[in-house]
């Protein structure tokens, strides 16, 4: 009887443990660079309206010509009409609030930190 109870209990513990491990494995692993909501660069760009002003390789909707094309942005020496050296830190400053860098039509669309990181990573591929 006691042995049976012990067997049943250990069975339950194993099942619960498997359940917990399964749940943990199922949870998306947070990556340092991914946007917290899992948004891809394309989703961010479409959500924030960047495509209305920029041509962006790999994003068919991005056909705007008010701003410069972002083709080859990673190889550019300077950005923001020459105002800033093209570094990740400066890109962060620019994306956070372009109007603090210079007088520009580019709006501050209030990107989140993680959106900025996702975009910078994506620009590195352009
Ligand atoms: C209303 C139009 C407009 C929107 C919307 C806009 N931009 Fe811009 N963007 C510009 C203009 C114009 C410039 C050129 C900067 C300048 O000299 O004024 C620019 C410059 C840039 C640059 C620097 C490129 C370079 O070579 O100097 C990047 C990167 C950029 N925008 C990314 C974005 C992203 C990402 C978004 C969306 C979050 C966005 N832009 C939304 C108009 C826009």
Helical residues, percent:
40-55%
The top level CATH class name of the largest domain: Mainly Beta
Classified in CATH, the superfamily of the largest domain is Cupredoxins -  blue copper proteins
Distance between the termini: 69 Å
Numbering strands along the chain, what is their spatial order in the largest sheet? Answer: 1-2
Shape: elongated
Topology order in helix (H) and strand (E) letters: HHEEHH
Number of domains: 2
Largest sheet: 2 strands, antiparallel
List the ions, cofactors and other small molecules found in this model.
heme C
E-strand count: 2
C-alpha Rg (nearest Å):
23 Å
Q: Please report which band the strand proportion falls in: under 5%, 5-15%, 15-25%, 25-35%, 35-45% or over 45%.
A: under 5%
What is the overall number of helices?
4
The structure class reads mainly alpha
The CATH architecture of the largest domain can be named as: Sandwich
Average pLDDT score? 84
- What is the CATH T-level topology of the largest domain? Immunoglobulin-like
Poorly predicted regions: 29-36
